[in-house]
Request: fold
Amino acid sequence: MNLWTKLKQHKPSPLVELEVDAWQEKELKVYVKRDDLLSPLPHDPFCGNKWRKLKYNLLYAQAQGIDTLLSFGGAYSNHIAALASAGRQFGFKTIGIIRGEEVENHTLRQARKDGMLLSFIDRATYRRKKEANFLADLQATYPNAYIIPEGGTNALALEGCKELAEEIQTQVAATHICSACGTGGTLAGMIQGLGQGVKALGISVLKGDFMRAEVETHLEQFTKKTYNNWEVLEGYHHGGYAKKTQALLDFIDAFYGQHAIQLEPIYTAKLFYAIDQLIKEDYFPRGSKIVMLHSGGLQGIIPEV
Ligand SMILES: *Cc1c(COP(=O)(O)O)cnc(C)c1O
Reply:
């Protein structure tokens, strides 16, 4: 099977049940959707929710005869890493517009190795990344490029995440599907793919109470429909984006010890920690079948050498 066919007709990523006595006593079933295992290549940053979000963007670019993909991100961005890797594998040139002064780290070194051209822009300019005139200038500078927003969140990304929710529901009769929220695009996409009575639960990894509104904006902008089958909880950011607490780091170790599944502190650990807390607080009714999305992101914890 060629690469494009594999992208179109990929096998579902594994869904694994976690065995925890305290959860079984509450008559809960808890599963992990292993989207971190989506790529057959080990340590491939083109995995997780970034795979879901890029899938239909790649197919669109191929259909349109586009040869260059351009997007935005911070210096550790999983999206930038995924885009660079996908570009190498699927034969696109890639351009990464990176926030802040030029730095060197594992993510950017790997992106360059994958063939990505990196352009660093100051933070004030970066903040204009959604403005029409900024995007028009960028398009004029890179006339062949297909511009994908920060975090990959656009209509085609939501389509891939909708498919993810549908895929999960073929594997288990879930009552709750839970995801970490950065831009909220993954949650917004999954919300569209839920069957009757199934809820989406988002855990914001950023400080502030804007994530619910962000998800609502994506839904309005890309689907023009309203949904009431979802919720975002804001109290689990551990100090803010990319901030960590000792409790979070201890949780990562304990979780790995019990389940042999690696989490990273920016997204997945905050989600899994939150669900663990919510179960303790009896947030989920007895009989619930809870799916936690392992959205990948492990490229971000490869140690610097
Ligand atoms: C980007 C990312 C998220 C957040 O996804 P959004 O669609 O931006 O909300 C969650 N988990 C991981 C591992 C990510 O890389």
